[in-house]
Amino acid sequence: MYAVLDNEEINLRAEERGLDRAALAQAAGISVDTLKRIQRGERVMFGTAQKVARVFGVRARELRA
Which residues contact 52 (CB under 8 A, 6 or more apart)? Predict the structure, then answer.
């Protein structure tokens, strides 16, 4: 299953936590290239979306576009 995440929501939450792109990718356990794909609005595996959501303490569906 795939997901497309809301880049604005991700950026807002990352900024609130003082996370730049590299720090967010590291915290989520994904590559910076994968995070860039997410930020361009490309679809990613749902498991990847879950990893990003966990950094913010939310469910992946709360970050979906």
Answer: 5, 10, 24, 28, 30, 35, 38, 60, 63
Helix (H, G, I), strand (E, B) or coil at 29: coil
Question: Which pLDDT score is estimated for 65?
Answer: 83
Distance in angstroms (rounded) separating the CA atoms of residues 15 and 24? 10
Please count the structural domains in the chain: 1
In order along its 65 residues, the chain shows pLDDT tens digits of 999 999 999 999 999 999 999 999 999 999 999 999 999 999 999 999 999 999 999 999 999 98
Domain range for 40 is 2-63
Q: Tokens in use for 54? A: 């966990």
Tokens of 40: 């361009």
